[in-house]
Amino acid sequence: MGHSAAVWDSQAAVETVKDLNGIEQVVLRNPQGASVTVSMLGARVTSWRNSHGEELLFTSSKGTVKAPKAMRGGIPICFPQFDNCASPEQQGFARNKMWRIDENPPPLKQRNDCLGKSFVDLLLKPSGDDLKCWPHSFEFRLRVCLAANGAITLISRVRNVNGKPFSFIFAYHAYLSVSDISEVRIEGLETSDYLDNLCKKERFTEQDAITFESEVDRVYLSSPNVIAVLDHEKKRTFVIRKEGLPDVVVWNPWDKKCKGMADVGDGEYKQMLCVDGAAMEKPITLKPGEEWTGQMEISVVESTLCAEHLDLEVPRCW
Ligand SMILES: O=P(O)(O)OC[C@H]1O[C@H](O)[C@H](O)[C@@H](O)[C@@H]1O
């Protein structure tokens, strides 16, 4: 196989396949039958399935996978920009670039994080064209892991291999699949301040758990590192743990905006919710030779009773 995708457990598997457009994808599997698929186009997680084969990420039925434009859904990586302006480059070029397998990644500090998991390492370096639009040399390493309990972890490392400092914004733009957006509630962001992109980025303080009755487009600032997305209809909770990512973007386009988006089916906003671990308010600045790490783990608890355990000492419910 020759990929530096390590297998810690003989039954876990890592396989390389081509998608309908001939784009290489790596499929990680665990012994319980869960799987994660990562495309070389944008290092986007295009699928995450639980041990029953159920898809946990939203993908638009109208998505197109024609490089460089990638489909709407999965977990795109937004780097070095992420803003709510229309133009694609506003969400950074990393998600529209072809990445490659990182054959020999430097060891991860949080080495133990990968024990008992199958994972793949990917690498992005700027091309000459990229340097024209963003004149900074970097190495972006992404490790995607699938744990025995079905949790997915993304670990990003950005190194400045440039002669001078540079700054960037970052987000794991995670499209979670939900039963019905009006049945969903987010816990853990109460009392956090947020910038409302629907009110000229005005700053507010969250009073309560977040529920959805209309379009939401907010950046929660300096938020707790553990939040929960409760899907009452599916009796399921996504528990999101993040490190090195102070902010959280919460987005649902609702009906009107959804109608105006060519790559999303009219009513599909009901089945999607973006909850992104991000570094937005304060751009990350790296001096030459410095490296930043941002990690996000999403696990699923087949219950909505878990939320009250939301302080950092949350015991793992699985
Ligand atoms: O259409 P995209 O570039 O994927 O962006 C989709 C959405 O991403 C984020 O959530 C922003 O906060 C939204 O303002 C934007 O509409």
TrEMBL record:
CDD domains, A to Z = D-hex-6-P-epi_like
Q: Which UniProt keywords apply?
A: Isomerase
A single GO BP annotation from the record? carbohydrate metabolic process
Q: What is its EC number?
A: 5.1.3.15
Per the record, its GO cellular-component terms are: cytoplasm
GO molecular function terms listed in the Swiss-Prot or TrEMBL record:
carbohydrate binding; glucose-6-phosphate 1-epimerase activity
**Quick one: which residues bind substrate?**
72, 90, 95
Q: What's the catalysed reaction?
A: alpha-D-glucose 6-phosphate = beta-D-glucose 6-phosphate
The entry sums up its family as follows:
Belongs to the glucose-6-phosphate 1-epimerase family.
Record's protein name: glucose-6-phosphate 1-epimerase
